[in-house]
Amino acid sequence: MEPPATNDSAPTEPGSGSAGGGPPRRKGTGNHPRARSLRPLALALALSLLAGACAEEPLPRRAIRRDDCLRNVRLDRLSEQLKLCNGVVEAFPEDPGPRNDRYLLHSLAGNDPAACEDMRAAVNLAARLPAKRLDPQLRNDLKVRQELCQPSAAAPS
Questions:
Q1: How many angstroms separate the Cα of 148 from the Cα of each of 11, 19, 70, 110?
Q2: What percent of the chain has pLDDT over 90?
Q3: What is the pTM of this model?
């Protein structure tokens, strides 16, 4: 009787076969030491590709708003808040509001010269606006703070 015909034409490793207790093994199926050493590398590559494909896109940054200078102000983070407010002032260079807000942050940080510089700039910007476009609260803030920045207000009487 003839052995059963197989469609497998790949050579087999010597010493393998039914005498070894199982079907013959094909050459190049991963028993070679180099093939075994490449398995972890291939697995790591596949996992990194999967992880990269599943990575979330970063959330879009929220647009800068005019009132961002005084959002969530914390005294222990005034320098960070001032940096954020600098960005707001740059984003709205013709708006007196952010400069008025930055005045307050500079005052809280003890930097009165910078605070008063912002106040003068805010007053100049506000003067260019029609009276009806300027918020009444902002108008009042500018008036009071401008008086605080006058040289006569700094000296005791």
A1: 95, 101, 20, 14
A2: 52
A3: 0.59
